[in-house]
Amino acid sequence: MTKLDFESIINPFIDEKFKEGSVKITRTSLYTYGIRTPILRQLAKDLYKNRPDYRDYFFSLSECSFEEILLLGMQFTHYTDYQRLLSDLKMLIPRFDSWAHTDQIIADFKCVKSYADYLDYFSYLKDGTEFEKRSYVIMLLKCCYAKSAANILTKNIFSELLTVPSGEYYVDMAIAWTLAELFAKDYSYMKSCVEDLASFSPFILKKAAQKCRDSYRITPEEKIEITNIIKSITK
């Protein structure tokens, strides 16, 4: 595949009006074509089936666009080879330039059989850039949802979350999101972790409380109690 091949595939789907809004939301510094997410997912599926040379094309690029990253990463949900997933994710994550990359690419991958091993493999991301750290937190977040991660208990996810260096906006927002999911997943356990919760910054805790209040899976009574717990810690 060449750049001309790539652009011939995506050109029919470029939406200039969408591009204008997308750049503002994603805050990417990379060139953006302006293609809607459902179309990107379908294109990624088609590329995976019909153009396996896209992977080699992408990794040969010295510079890439916002969508080129998404089009490779979105193919990962179709992978059946676990080692290939690990290898390609390891090479792709350093190119992430937006929360949209972490959130739309990191998924409940079908070929991951042991989330404990998967998380251990990527623990080095905690020492990386803002979006490398966010990638790791999103991996923890996905363990809250994944059926194949049933052996990853709330306390294991929470304990690992405590080890992620915070202080960067997109990392902190991901931590807050994950804390809210943990409250929805196991309210009783999280309620017992007041001392450990105090390790997080007031910003993270207040954002987590806000996300809890927005959740349909947390009862009104629990929302009040969570808000009071966070207030007691951040006062």
Instruction: Kindly report the oligomeric state of this protein.
Output: single chain
Strand content: under 5%
Largest sheet: none
Helix content estimate = 55-70%
Overall pLDDT metric: 95
Count of helical regions: 15
What's the count of strands? 0
Radius of gyration: 19 Å
- Tally of individual domains: 2
Give the class from helix and strand content and strand pairing: mainly alpha
Q: Using the alpha-carbon principal axes, give the shape.
A: globular
How far the N terminus sits from the C terminus, by CA atoms, comes to 57 Å
Low-confidence stretches: none
The helix-strand sequence is HHHHHHHHHHHHHHH
Describe this structure as you would to a colleague:
This protein is 64% helix and 0% strand. It has 235 residues and is mainly α. The protein has two domains: 1-92, no CATH class; 112-235.
Structure in a nutshell:
With 235 residues, the chain is an all-alpha fold. The protein has helices at residues 3-10, 16-26, 37-50, 53-59, 66-73, 82-92, 99-105, 115-121, 130-145, 154-161, 169-185, 187-191, 194-197, 202-214, 220-234. The chain has 15 helices and no strands.
